[in-house]
């Protein structure tokens, strides 16, 4: 079958990202050097590895655990604030919150004087689950980073912080 998108080999280039293939009618992404793709694949693989450690034992999905992790670290956030901190879809967070409240792992309370705003906290059962999963996640991270020395780990986190800053600047400048 004729593939109209991949008729000719791409031009060589050394800056990664997208390029126009020689004689092609479209732009070709060099996915191995396209940062959003690489970050997404790595994030998915790491999340899946951690997910396998807790999913069956605690009957939790990835979104539910992320909500619990954020609320466990930052109690009294609204669902919208959880979505903002995790960069997850508000609807997905809202559904995860509803499942966690129904399962008795999360408590939702009206916030002080503002009756329109509810805040989230882990319930006793939620704290027990959190206290069992968090050490597994930390241990996984330690195994993952074990092959890096302290300076490499420091550089990694500085670069992640810098990418975070730059992404926010790009987002604001849209």
What is the compact description of this entry?
This protein is an alpha+beta fold and 174 residues long. It has helices spanning 35-58, 62-73, 79-86, 90-102, 124-145, 150-172, and strands at 17-20, 27-30, 106-111, 114-122. The chain folds into two domains: 1-33, no CATH class; 35-145, Arc Repressor Mutant, subunit A, CATH 1.10.10.10.
Tell me what the structure shows:
The protein has 174 residues and is α+β, with helices and mostly antiparallel strands. The protein folds into 2 domains: 1-33, no CATH class; 35-145, Arc Repressor Mutant, subunit A (Orthogonal Bundle), CATH 1.10.10. Helix content is 59%, strand content 13%. The protein has 6 helices and 4 strands. Strands 1-2 form a two-stranded antiparallel sheet. A two-stranded antiparallel sheet has the order 3-4. It is globular and about 60 Å long. The two termini are 40 Å apart.
Largest sheet: 2 strands, antiparallel
Distance between the termini: 40 Å
The string of secondary-structure elements, in order, is EEHHHHEEHH
* Number of E-state strands: 4
The chain-level mean pLDDT equals 89
């Amino acid at each position: 079958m004729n593939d109209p998108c991949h008729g000719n080999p791409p031009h060589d280039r050394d800056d990664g990202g997208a390029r126009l293939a020689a004689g092609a009618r479209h732009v070709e992404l060099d996915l191995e050097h396209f940062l959003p793709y690489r970050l997404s694949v790595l994030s998915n693989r790491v999340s899946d590895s951690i997910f396998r450690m807790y999913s069956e034992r605690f009957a939790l999905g990835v979104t539910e655990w992320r909500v619990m992790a954020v609320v466990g670290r930052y109690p009294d956030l609204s669902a919208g604030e959880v979505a903002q901190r995790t960069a997850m879809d508000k609807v997905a967070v809202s559904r995860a919150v509803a499942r966690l409240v129904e399962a008795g792992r999360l408590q939702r309370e009206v916030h002080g004087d503002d009756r329109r705003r509810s805040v989230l906290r882990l319930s006793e059962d939620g704290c027990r689950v959190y206290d069992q999963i968090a050490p597994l996640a930390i241990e996984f991270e330690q195994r993952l980073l074990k092959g890096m020395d302290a300076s490499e780990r420091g550089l990694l986190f500085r670069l992640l912080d810098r990418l975070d800053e730059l992404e926010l600047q790009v987002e604001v400048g849209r």
